[in-house]
Fold:
Amino acid sequence: MISAKDRMARLVAAIPWIVAQDGAPVDEIAERFDYPRDLLLADLQDVVFFVGVPPYTPDTLIEVIIDEDMVWISYADWFARPMKLSGGELLTLLTAGETALSFDNQDEAGALARGLAKLRLATGTSDTIDVQLGSIDRTFLPVLRSAADARLCVDIDYYSFASNSQTTRRIEPDRFFVADGNWYVGGYCHVAAGERLFRVDRIHSVGETSQTFSQPLQEDGAAEPRRKFSIDEAPRVTIALPSHRMRVLDGLPFDELAADKNGELVVSLPVSSARWLEQLVLRIGPGVRLVNAGEFDIDPADPRERMLSRYGASEASQE
Amino acid sequence: MNKLERLLKLLTALLDTTIPVSAEDLRRRIGGYPDRDESFRRTFERDKDDLRQMGVDIRVVAVPGTEPVVDGYIVDQEAYAGQDPGLEADELAALHLAAALVRVEQLSTDTLWKLGGTPESGVGTEGTGVLVDAAVETDLAGVFYEAISARCLATFGYGDIDRVLEPSRLSFARGRWYVSGFDQRRDAVRVFRLDRISGDVELGPPGAFEPRSTRGPQVTRSWELGDDEPVISTVQIEAPMVAAARIQLDPEEVEEQADGSIVVTIEVRNPAMFRDWVLEFYDNAVVLGPPSMRQMMIDWFRETVPT
Structure:
């Protein structure tokens, strides 16, 4: 049973739509607003018909006419326009729309682009809201998306930050997400023989293949859930940093963050590679302490010396 | 009278008036509320809560001429109703598809009903097979959207300084919301990252300022978010990271090199953020100039003595 509040939400959206259409088929209203047909008819006849203002004489009530399979509503001036989208709703809708636009590489004159433009115009946000979920060269994303839809493998030339090398991999793209403005594609990697995530801006080329992929079936015939890479499996390190450098941790997953009495922060976080850890040490900068490097055998002084060398200011060469 | 009828009549009554109406007056106008005062009050409070949860902004204002003051209730027609964007069926279907494809927080079916419902059964969920997760937090951005729409001054703390902003543009870029506008205390256009705002954001009354011709920068790059005089700086970025770097760069800022690297020339207003951006590329990027920026990087590395 749909609650009174949920029926109310449907009605205040459906009434202006029916008015704007100058009458609409019952089935279409039921479909559009996910309103069970019988309940819709009952609410229109037994509720909306009696709504108005005192003295509740026929001339002050909403008029509802139901004739066979059509509904007409008039004298519903209070509900002539739909409810305004809240700020959060509008921003969320624009975000979803703009993301899909970049994801699909749709025609700028296409339905989604036109719909978004109309939405912006109606809400006065044509030049006040700018959404770029993940700015990216649109070349690869639609190709990856098509391959994912068709369950086709792709060959990618990928730069691995961890190994600082470029390799060609055959992957089975099956999911996408955006984090901190970066697009990622996830799926089974034939080279690594396991699930991996790839940053799309580190993909240098995508080659389509005719090799299909499918999820293995369980005994009951259902698709076996893919075992996805979990951050829980990544090795952990513990680092201390000055509190004013906390912004380096923005967007990074961490297990625990504690402040000690000296104002130093101690964080335990998953680390994907020694090279990434080296970079993190340098990004934190002065005041960083590697409390526990876990399984990573790195000399914290190495990245510092490497960068000084890049700037021709190596201390080793001066000694 | 059932609850649905009561809710509809309450909303109608609140929309139909231009002066605030007391609870007792609403009780008389609507009818159908319990006779006992205590039961009426409870039911009336629940009804108001339900309408507010739907997004109806019920304002509480003193009923004119009452002494002692009696609370009155009213819903501003203009605040309640939106402009119908006039979406064609294919446009609405495309928005549904986008909403189904991209999983963003807070996007509910109620949002799409306000735009005219679902045009066809199942539109948006069939055949996509792919879902994009986009964790976008819009609570604070929603507050600034309201401020921009109603031209309210926004007062908030940022970088240990209280700001009074005439907000004019919201931008979502690289996973963050930014607001730009005229900072009255700084007497200049400024951009602020919303997740760096400290404490609450207070909005003043509507219509507090006239829109300025300069709406503020559309592109928000970390090294531009500062009050320093701009310093022209150049960075060389090696080939593996070129694609990632280009995302934040205008084509005229990039000079391609024969070895596949690029030399980037940009205006830096915030050296610390510039340094952090360069460090994102680790040993694939080197600051070429000016000497002051280069020295800043060298000093940073020298002072980083990890133990």
About this structure: The CA atoms of residues 147 and 203 of chain B lie 7 Å apart. Residues 121-130 of chain B have pLDDT under 50 and may be disordered. The first strand of chain B starts at residue 21 and ends at 22.
